[in-house]
Specification:
The structure holds 2 protein chains of 2 kinds. Chain A has 11 helices and 12 strands. By secondary structure, chain A is an alpha+beta fold. Chain A has 2 domains: about 180 residues, no CATH class; about 200 residues, no CATH class. A 6-stranded mixed sheet of chain A has the order 5-4-8-9-7-10. Chain A has a 4-stranded antiparallel sheet with strand order 2-11-1-12, covered by helices on one side. Chain A has a two-stranded antiparallel sheet with strand order 3-6. The radius of gyration of chain B is 17 Å and the shape is globular. The chains are: A alpha+beta, B alpha/beta. At the A-B interface, helix 1 and helix 9 of A face helix 3 and helix 4 of B.
C-alpha cells in the first residue's frame, strides 16, 4: 500500500503528454533505424553473394563493332599498349584477357541416340576471375580424361525458359547438363583430334564458353595458326563500380562494357547512399526524442524536488525513491523497443516479398534486433544514470 | 547505536562576518564545545533567527554548510555517506522538523504509514492509540492539507516516533499547541525516549515543551 502511496506522490507532475510524445517519436526513430539497418543487411547480402546479379566488381570490356568497320579490317582487339593503359587506371585492380581459340572446334552430343553437332568457340581467362571454380578445373593433355567447361548461366536460362518452354522440350538442370558427355573435335594447323568434355560449372560473370588456361595453351600451340593474336575481350576487376571515371574512360576509348554492370554499379552506389541517409534520419529522430525524454525527466524531478527531499528526510534512500522513475523509463523504453521490432518485422516482410521475387534470400533479423536492444539498453542506462545522479544531488540541501 | 553527538567550534556559514561576533560569543552552541549524550534531555533555547533549525539540519545531516566539526560517536558528520545517513535516519535519529513536512495530499494515516512501513517499528494499533491520545483519531482519514497547524503538528510528532532512535530532535514541537496538548505531546515523546533509553534534543523560542530537562542550553 505504501508503495502505492509513494508512487502517488512521485507521479504527480508527470506529464503523460510529454512521455507519450517521447515514446512515439522514439518509436518512429528506432523503427526507421532498425528498418534501414535491416534493409541494408538484406541488400548487402545480395551484393556479397558471389554469383549475385548485383555483384559489380568485374566488368567485361570489348570494342564496339560498328557498321562496316569490322569488314573493312578495323581492329576490334586490344593491343598491348591499350591493356597497359587500362591497367594504369586508378580504378582498376587487375585486368585479365580472354584468350580465344585459334583453331576450329565442333562439339557433338549424343542424346539418347539422337546426335547433335555444332561449331563452337572456346575462350579462357585466368582462373582468378571465375566466380565458380569446379574441383577439376585443370587440364593435362596426357592425363585428363575430359576437358572441363564452364558456360554462361545465361545460356542455360535461355534454353530452359526460351527454347525448351516454347518447343515443349524438357527443362534441364545444372546437374543433368554436367552428366552429358560432349565430344570435341579440335582441328587446325593440319591436325585433328577428338577429346571428351563435360560442362562442370555455370558462371554469372563470364558470358562465354570457358575452358582451363592449360587446355587453351596446349590446344592453341597444337592446332593454332596465329599464336600472336591479341585478345578481343578483357575482364577487369574494379575498386568501385559506381565510379563515374569508369564510364567516362569506356566512352572516351570507344569500348563497350558487357551488360549494364557499370550502371548497376551506380545504382548500388545510390542505394547505399540512400540507405545511409535514411539511417541518419532515423538516428536524428531517435536522438531528438532521447533529448525530449531527458528534458521531461529533468523537469519532472525538478517539479517533484520537494517531495523527493521530504521522502529522503523520512529515511527513504535515493535508490528507493528513484526506482519508481527507473520503472517508468524502463516500461516506456521496453514499449518503444517492442513496438520498433514489431514494425520492423511487418515492414521487412513487405520488402522481403519483393526481394524474394528477385531470388534474394533473406538474412536473419537477429543481429539488427540485437542492435535495437543495445540502443535501448544504452538509452535506458543513461536515463537511469541521470535520474540517480539528480536524486542523489538533492539528498543534502546544501 | 549512537551514544554521543559532539559539536566543536561549529559556525553556520550564514553567521560569517563581524556583525555576528557578539551573537556567537554569547552562544553555548556555536563556536563552543558541546556534547549531547544518549539518555539525557536537552533544551536548546533561543530567539528567533539564532539558528535552531540550522542546528537540527546539521545534526540530522540535511545540511553541511557549517565550519567546525560535528561528530557522531567520533565519526565526522560532514564525511558520512548517503547510505550511512539513511541508516541513521531509519534506526538511530528521529526528527520532527519545524515545518512538519507532512504530504498535504495524503491522509493522516498515509502520512504516518509512509514512515512506519520503512521501519516497520510501530503497530497499526499503536498508531491509532497515539492518534487518539493526541486527540486527532477522528482525522485519520482526512488529508493532511485540511488539518489545522496544531493538528498537523501532533500527526507529525506521531510519525517521527515511528522508528527506533537513540536521539530524537524535535524542532519547536509545541509551537502551535495549547497547554493540554503540550503536556500530552511531552508525555508521549518522553515515554518513547525513556523506553528506548534515548536522548531528546528539543528547541524552543519561548513556548517550551513541558518536560524535565537535564540541561537547558542557550543558543
Amino acid at each position: 500500500m505504501t508503495t502505492g502511496v509513494v508512487w502517488r506522490l512521485l507521479r504527480q507532475n508527470m506529464s503523460v503528454g510529454q512521455l507519450a510524445g517521447y515514446a512515439v517519436s522514439n518509436l518512429v526513430g528506432l523503427a526507421i533505424v532498425l528498418m534501414a539497418l535491416q534493409f541494408y543487411c538484406d541488400v548487402t547480402e545480395v551484393w556479397e553473394r558471389e554469383d549475385s546479379f548485383m555483384k559489380r566488381d568485374f566488368i567485361v570490356l570489348s570494342k564496339k563493332v560498328g557498321g562496316l568497320g569490322s569488314i573493312l579490317g578495323s581492329k576490334v582487339d586490344f593491343s598491348k599498349e591499350e591493356i597497359a593503359n587500362l591497367e594504369s587506371q586508378p580504378w582498376v585492380k587487375r585486368v585479365g584477357v580472354f584468350t580465344a581459340s585459334d583453331f576450329n572446334v565442333s562439339a557433338s552430343v549424343d542424346m539418347g541416340g539422337r546426335g547433335m553437332s555444332t561449331a563452337l568457340f572456346l575462350e579462357s581467362v585466368p582462373d582468378d576471375f571465375f566466380d565458380v571454380k569446379p574441383g577439376d578445373w585443370t587440364y593435362d593433355p596426357n592425363r585428363s580424361e575430359y576437358v572441363p567447361i564452364i558456360i554462361s548461366k545465361d545460356y542455360l536460362t535461355l534454353y530452359n525458359f526460351g527454347f525448351a518452354s516454347s518447343r515443349g522440350l524438357p527443362q534441364i538442370s545444372e546437374e543433368m547438363i554436367g552428366l552429358l558427355p560432349i565430344d570435341l573435335s579440335l582441328s587446325g594447323n593440319g591436325k585433328q583430334r577428338w577429346v571428351k568434355a563435360h560442362i562442370t560449372g555455370f558462371s554469372s560473370r563470364l558470358n562465354t564458353i570457358a575452358v582451363p588456361t592449360e587446355f587453351m595453351t596446349w590446344a592453341n600451340a597444337e592446332f593454332g595458326e596465329n599464336n600472336d593474336a591479341n585478345p578481343s575481350r578483357l575482364i577487369v576487376e574494379v575498386n568501385s563500380p559506381g565510379d563515374p571515371a569508369i564510364s567516362e574512360y569506356i566512352k572516351s576509348h570507344g569500348y563497350e562494357s558487357a551488360g549494364d554492370k557499370v550502371d548497376n554499379g551506380k545504382a548500388s552506389y545510390f542505394l547505399s547512399v540512400a540507405t545511409s541517409v535514411v539511417l541518419a534520419v532515423g538516428l536524428v529522430i531517435s536522438l531528438l526524442s532521447f533529448v525530449i525524454l531527458l528534458l521531461s525527466i529533468n523537469l519532472l524531478l525538478q517539479r517533484n524536488k520537494e517531495r523527493l527531499i521530504e521522502l529522503m528526510q523520512l529515511g527513504y534512500s535515493p535508490s528507493q525513491v528513484s526506482r519508481y522513475y527507473y520503472a517508468t523509463v524502463g516500461f516506456i523504453n521496453a514499449f518503444v523497443l517492442i513496438g520498433a521490432i514489431v514494425a520492423l518485422v511487418i515492414v521487412a516482410s513487405i520488402w522481403r516479398g519483393s526481394l524474394a521475387l528477385l531470388g534474394v534470400e533473406s538474412v536473419s533479423m537477429l543481429p539488427v534486433i540485437c542492435i535495437g536492444i543495445a540502443i535501448m539498453a544504452s538509452i535506458t542506462l543513461i536515463n537511469v544514470y541521470v535520474i540517480s545522479s539528480t536524486v542523489r544531488r538533492n539528498f543534502f540541501r546544501s | 547505536m549512537i551514544s554521543k553527538i559532539h559539536l566543536s567550534k561549529v559556525r553556520p556559514y550564514a553567521f560569517k562576518g563581524s556583525e555576528y561576533d557578539s551573537r556567537l560569543e554569547s552562544s553555548h552552541v556555536w563556536m563552543s564545545d558541546l556534547t549531547f549524550r544518549k539518555g539525557c534531555y536537552y533544551m536548546v533555547a533561543a530567539e528567533s533567527g539564532a539558528g535552531k533549525s540550522s542546528l537540527c539540519s546539521f545534526l540530522y545531516g540535511l545540511r553541511r554548510d557549517y565550519d567546525g566539526s560535528i561528530t557522531i560517536d567520533g565519526v565526522e558528520a560532514g564525511q558520512m555517506t548517503i547510505a550511512q545517513w539513511c541508516e541513521l535516519r531509519n534506526g538511530h535519529l528521529a526528527y520532527l522538523p519545524q515545518e512538519m513536512h507532512l504530504f498535504p495530499e495524503l491522509t493522516v494515516m498515509e502520512n504516518i504509514r509512509i514512515k512506519n512501513r520503512l521501519t516497520g517499528y510501530k503497530s497499526e494499533d499503536w498508531i491509532k492509540d497515539a492518534l487518539s491520545r493526541l486527540g486527532v483519531s477522528d482525522k485519520a482519514d482526512v488529508v493532511a492539507g485540511k488539518l489545522s497547524v496544531g493538528q498537523q503538528q501532533r500527526v507529525a510528532i506521531i510519525r517521527s516516533l515511528c522508528q527506533p532512535f537513540d536521539f530524537v530532535l524535535v524542532d519547536e514541537p509545541v509551537s502551535h499547541l495549547d497547554e493540554r496538548n503540550n503536556e500530552l505531546v511531552a508525555a508521549m515523546i518522553s515515554e518513547e525516549a525513556s523506553k528506548q533509553g534515548a536522548g531528546i534534543i528539543a528547541t524552543s523560542v519561548g513556548n517550551d515543551i513541558k518536560m524535565e530537562f537535564n540541561s537547558i542550553i542557550e543558543l
